[in-house]
Structure formats: structure tokens, C-alpha cells
């Protein structure tokens, strides 16, 4: 990829505010702005307090609210209107060099229209393993898994083929896109973390918030309490470990529809006083959350390149996780944690880490070292080079515009 000058970049995003995609998008937008580029983030919600405000915002990233509607869901999910006079007017005045789409839903239609109207090339990031979310559609279509998966693959291929270039945040996503045989080139550019905020240290934030004793050991889950994140599996691991470790507590940092059932299960099993639900934590406080914990635990296999993993590792937490290619390079088995194949093994390795202070300290140090690979300024620099290349390709072959 070649060097490029200063760019005007339009980011398009919709879905759930306070998500990992929103966090990574906002962090990258700010890193690009600090490098001198002009970035506008088009979203259906009022800008949140997450990455933008936690990044010492100085106003260089512009946020433009899209006309929106909320999906009939038990979660806060917003989609944009596919046509907007205000957005079209804004676009006509701003003269953007590139459009970067960070969602695969309705906002794509709006981005494609603007691309054609103003001859602006599109870059698309494959943030979400769409096939892992088909359970949300079964209420409408029934248990037709193979049919739904085929539809999702066709749709993923369609979305990718409307872009000049596709970004895969991990090798897992790149391998899936390779199997789909999409037309545009795919570039593996990982998500980035703000290393100025997420770094190793000590904190009593969780102990003070939940009135835990100094002797408490804290397992940490970070993410939505949804089926695809498998918080119930994390709870099952904790339950088995907690039998022999009265000092052990589980903190679930996040919110979602499974919270009520998890609370009820903990109460039935006599663990309510040792399982703690934080709800959505303000992003500025998340470094304190990680630094308060002893071990980050993950049972999800639906991720692309999870921000929670990057943040936990950058904060110097050892990891016990189910093996998933999304964690490749972030969790190195036997180095900064363990990536294992099933829940029984996850219980075993988490117990080893909790019981062996020296092992835990060594893996914590290794996490901090690995975390430095994923600086958001490096991610932004690689994206800026790609944007410059895409702009050049569009000038050479304008007939290929979306």
C-alpha cells in the first residue's frame, strides 16, 4: 500500500450503540483525525460516551446523526433510513475521498447511493460473523439452519462485492471471505486499542463497587449478555470453580436479555452473593474494570476480533478462553493464557491460573507485551494507506464504482 496525503473520510455505522464495533470504529476515527485526516461518523444514535469521549475528544471527529428507526427487539438496535435528504446534502458539500462502511444492514443502501451520486469509492469492514446470529431469525423462519446459512453467505458476498476493498479484522474473517470467493481484495487489518488507557495496573474499582473483600479473586466476563456471547457457559465454569474456592467471585460487565435468567440461576444455586452484574459500564471506567480482575474468561466462538480481548490483554490480564481463530495472535496458548477446546478444559486451565500465582503473573506480563501489537494508531495508519490506494484505484477505473 502506498503513502497518501490527508483525506476526507466518511464512516457509516448502525446497529447497537456501546458495542465492540462502535468502540473500534470510534477509536479508529479519532486516531485518523489525530493524524490529520477529516473524519465524519454517520450513525443513527447520538454519540455515546464510549470511545469518543474517552479519547480526550477535541472535536476533530464530526458525528452526524442519521434518520433512524428502532428495531422491535429487547435490545437497543437502530437502523438508518435508506434515503436521506440531509445526509445527501451534507455529502455534496463535504467532498469525501472515501466511504468506509462498518455494518452490513440498511446503512449499506444509503452508502451505496452516496457512492454512486458523488463517485466516492467504498471500503467495507467485515466486523460480524453473520452466520453466528441466525438464531435471531428463527422466530420468523423456524429451525431452517442450512437455508438461513446459505442466505447469509449470499448476502455477505453481495455486500462485500459492492466495495472496492474489504477489511478483515482477523484471519478468521479473512478465511471466511476467501471461502466465499468475493471479488474485491481483502486486507487483514486488526482492530486497535488505545494503549494510553488500557495498560497494566492495580485497581480496587470492582471490589469497592460490589463490596468485595481484599482476599476476593475476580473472574471477569465482558460483553453483551446474549446467546452468541455465551455468558451462561462462563457462569457454568465459575460455578464449578466456586465449589472449592470460596474467595472466587464472577463479575459480568455488560447487559442483555440473559441477565434475568443468570441472576435466577445464581440465586437457586446459592451463588447470588458471588455473581455480580455491572450493567453497561461507562467506557472511561473500563480500564479500571480490567485492572480490578484476576482473570479474563471467554466462552464465545462467534467473534471476529473482539475488543474485549484486546482490552483485557492490553490491561495485563491472563486469559482462559475457548479456542477461536478470532483470538489468534491475541491469546497465545501457554504464553499469556490458555485457549482450549471445551468447557471441561476451560475449568481446568482457569483453576490452574487461579491457583498458581507465579504462572498467573508470568502470563499477565506476556499479555501486556502482546497487547502492544494492537495500537489503534497503527491500525489507523494502515487504513489511511488503504484509503489512499482505493482512491487511486477509483480514479484509474471509475467504471467499477459501487
What does this structure look like?
By secondary structure, this protein is an alpha/beta fold. It has two domains: 8-192 and 375-400, Rossmann fold, CATH 3.40.50; 205-373, Rossmann fold (3-Layer(aba) Sandwich). Helix content is 41%, strand content 16%. The chain contains 15 helices and 15 strands. It has a seven-stranded parallel sheet. It has a six-stranded parallel sheet with strand order 12-11-10-13-14-15, with helices on both faces. A two-stranded antiparallel ribbon has the order 4-5. Strand 4 and strand 5 (78-80) form a beta hairpin. Helix 1 (20-34) crosses helix 15 (376-396). The longest helix is centred in the last third of the chain and has 21 residues, at 376-396. The two termini are 21 Å apart.
| Assigned CATH superfamily of the largest domain | Glycogen Phosphorylase B
Please state the overall shape, judged from the principal axes of the Cα atoms.
Answer: elongated
CATH class of the largest domain: Alpha Beta
Order of helices and strands: EHEHEEEHEHEHHEHEHEHEHEHEHEEHHH
How many discrete structural domains? Answer: 2
Largest sheet: 7 strands, parallel
How does CATH name the architecture of the largest domain?
A: 3-Layer(aba) Sandwich
Amino acid at each position: 500500500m502506498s503513502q497518501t496525503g490527508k483525506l476526507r473520510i466518511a464512516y457509516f455505522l448502525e446497529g447497537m450503540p456501546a458495542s465492540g464495533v462502535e468502540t473500534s470504529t470510534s477509536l479508529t476515527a479519532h486516531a485518523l483525525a489525530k493524524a490529520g485526516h477529516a473524519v465524519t461518523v454517520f450513525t443513527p444514535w447520538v454519540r455515546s460516551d464510549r470511545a469518543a469521549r474517552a479519547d480526550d475528544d477535541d472535536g476533530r471527529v464530526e458525528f452526524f446523526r442519521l434518520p433512524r428507526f428502532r428495531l422491535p427487539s429487547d435490545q437497543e438496535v437502530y437502523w438508518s433510513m435508506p434515503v436521506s435528504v440531509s445526509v445527501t446534502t451534507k455529502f455534496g458539500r463535504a467532498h469525501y475521498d472515501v466511504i468506509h462502511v462498518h455494518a452490513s444492514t440498511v446503512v449499506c443502501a444509503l452508502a451505496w447511493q452516496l457512492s454512486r451520486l458523488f463517485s466516492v469509492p467504498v471500503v467495507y469492514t467485515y466486523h460480524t460473523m453473520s452466520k453466528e446470529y441466525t438464531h435471531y431469525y428463527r422466530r420468523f423462519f423456524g429451525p431452517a439452519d442450512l437455508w438461513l446459512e446459505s442466505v447469509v453467505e449470499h448476502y455477505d458476498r453481495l455486500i462485500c462485492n459492492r466495495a472496492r476493498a474489504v477489511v478483515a479484522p482477523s484471519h478468521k474473517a479473512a478465511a471466511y471471505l476467501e471461502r466465499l470467493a468475493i471479488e474485491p481484495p481483502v486486507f487483514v487489518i486488526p482492530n486497535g486499542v488505545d494503549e494510553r488507557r488500557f495498560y497494566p495496573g492495580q485497581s480496587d474499582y470492582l471490589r469497592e463497587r460490589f463490596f468485595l473483600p481484599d482476599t476476593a479473586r475476580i473472574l471477569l466476563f465482558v460483553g453483551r449478555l446474549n446467546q452468541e456471547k455465551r455468558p451462561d457457559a462462563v457462569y457454568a465454569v465459575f460455578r464449578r470453580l466456586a465449589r472449592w474456592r470460596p474467595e472466587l467471585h464472577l463479575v459480568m460487565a455488560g447487559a442483555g436479555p440473559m441477565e434475568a435468567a443468570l441472576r435466577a440461576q445464581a440465586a437457586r444455586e446459592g451463588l447470588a452473593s458471588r455473581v455480580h452484574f455491572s450493567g453497561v459500564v461507562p467506557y472511561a471506567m473500563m480500564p479500571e474494570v480490567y485492572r480490578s480482575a484476576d482473570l479474563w474468561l471467554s466462552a464465545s466462538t462467534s467473534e471476529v476480533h473482539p475488543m474485549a480481548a484486546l482490552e483485557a490483554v492490553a490491561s495485563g490480564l491472563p486469559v482462559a478462553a475457548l479456542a477461536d481463530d478470532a483470538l489468534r495472535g491475541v491469546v497465545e496458548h501457554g504464553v499469556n493464557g490458555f485457549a482450549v477446546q471445551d468447557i471441561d478444559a476451560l475449568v481446568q486451565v482457569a483453576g490452574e491460573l487461579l491457583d498458581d500465582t507465579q504462572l498467573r503473573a508470568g502470563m499477565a506480563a506476556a499479555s501486556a507485551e502482546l497487547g502492544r501489537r494492537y495500537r489503534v494508531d497503527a491500525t489507523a495508519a494502515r487504513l489511511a494507506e488503504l484509503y489512499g490506494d482505493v482512491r487511486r484505484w477509483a480514479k484509474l477505473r471509475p467504471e467499477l464504482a459501487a
